[in-house]
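Our preliminary data section would be incomplete without showing what the modeling component actually yields. Below, a chain of 68 amino acids is followed by its predicted structure, encoded as tokens that our downstream tools consume directly.
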Amino acid sequence: MAPARRNTFPYHFPVPKVEGLLALEDNLTAVSKHNFQLNYGLILDLLHVKVDPKALTTLTQYYDPPLR
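Predicted structure:
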């Protein structure tokens, strides 16, 4: 008996260019950065997270909505 084959679809995740946003973050004063964190939380930390597109592709291939 052959195992069931899953249909996989090609997914492409664009890698955003955040250099401009990082430059803006560097120009913030300590007070401005603190006020931004009070209003929006630690969202600026997401600029420093490295994203691996291959890992996201693998996760989407194994995502199975009926199992949720």
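The mean pLDDT is 86. Residues 6 and 61 are 9 Å apart (CA to CA). Preliminary results of this kind motivate Aim 1 of the renewal.
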